[in-house]
Write a structure and sequence with these properties.
The protein has one domain. It is 63% helix and 2% strand. The chain starts with 11 loop residues before the first helix and ends with a helix. Bound molecules: iron/sulfur cluster (2 copies).
Length: 168
């Protein structure tokens, strides 16, 4: 490929450029692979289940109010550096438009006006619970959410593995 090969330490803009170029060249191949298609469908369902659980548990409302009234505080600049290009490729396979610039100078590169712009997120983003949520939400509800998130994390791992196998 005519762009620089990236590592986890590369700037996020380079990882995005690499993932987009890779998707342009090999996206069709990935979309034709039965395992990838099945895992993407499984991941979509798992993400939907986690999001629904966050709404049922009341977390989505607390986060919305926190973002509106206090500017949130959990998606700070630099967190995007945890992302490797494969998870960005998975987002492209899920039809996500990756941002071409940072919206909030103090926020994560993937933080949009109404929250996270990604569908497939890093495990640290999936599992993060701040003190406010921990204090306000019934632990049983948090456990139910953890179970749903576990499915999301496992499916992402399997997708990563399948992508690596297809590249080798
Ligand atoms: S996780 Fe916590 S800090 Fe982040 S938006 Fe929700 S309530 Fe606010
Ligand atoms: S949830 Fe999204 S916006 Fe927040 S830190 Fe993670 S990737 Fe960035």
């Amino acid at each position: 490929m005519n762009i620089k090969r990236v590592t986890l330490k590369s700037p996020i803009e380079e990882k995005i450029a690499w993932a987009e170029e890779y998707y342009r060249r090999f996206g069709v191949q990935f979309h034709k692979d039965r395992s990838i298609v099945d895992l993407l469908n499984k991941l979509k369902k798992a993400i939907h289940a986690s999001h629904s659980e966050m709404t049922v548990a009341g977390i989505a409302r607390i986060c919305r109010e926190c973002e509106q009234d206090e500017g949130g505080s959990c998606c700070g600049a630099g967190l995007e550096n945890r992302y490797d290009w494969e998870i960005l490729l998975i987002n492209l396979l899920l039809d996500v438009n990756l941002p071409q610039k940072r919206h909030d100078p103090e926020g994560c590169y993937f933080l949009g006006k109404t929250g996270c712009l990604l569908q497939a997120r890093h495990v640290i983003c999936i599992n993060y619970v701040c003190k406010k949520i921990n204090d306000l939400i019934d632990p049983r509800k948090l456990n139910t959410l953890r179970e749903k998130e576990g499915e999301e994390v496992n499916t992402l791992f399997l997708l990563h593995e399948r992508i690596k196998k297809m590249r080798s």
